[in-house]
Design goal:
Length: 127
């Protein structure tokens, strides 16, 4: 009697790997914010297909200078904006982390970053 490939251990493992590739994290959206007296942070995992919309939004609403751009790049760095606001950004396809230190930045800058993060949540939820 011949065993079918799918009934063997390697066949079963192969099937699990293929299934997880097509139905993995890409379909899940997770957004977490932390807001305490020292810092505000947003972490988001989203569909890779939404990366372009996130990059365009960040370029239009956070970066006012032509020196830096989020388009078509991954970023893992603390950046200083034109108004001297310092923000940590970790951005990869399908992943985003924005963190601002409240003690090192003005209240206005912190509020602006918080509003940007809130709008990003809406963009990710709508798409």
């Amino acid at each position: 009697m011949k065993k079918h490939f799918i009934y063997t251990l390697p066949g079963f493992i192969f099937l699990i790997v293929i299934t997880s590739c097509f139905h993995g994290r890409d379909h899940n959206i997770s957004i977490t914010t932390t807001d305490d007296e020292d810092e505000y942070e947003m972490e988001a995992s989203y569909r890779r297909s939404q990366t372009h919309a996130v990059q365009v939004y960040l370029n239009e609403h956070l970066i006012n200078s032509s020196i830096r751009s989020f388009k078509n790049r991954s970023i893992d760095d603390e950046i200083t904006l034109d108004d001297k606001t310092t923000v940590y950004i970790n951005s990869y396809p399908g992943e985003l982390r924005i963190k601002i230190n409240k003690t090192e930045n003005s209240d206005e800058s912190c509020e602006r970053v918080r509003e940007i993060c809130e709008e990003l949540k809406e963009i990710l939820a709508d798409n």
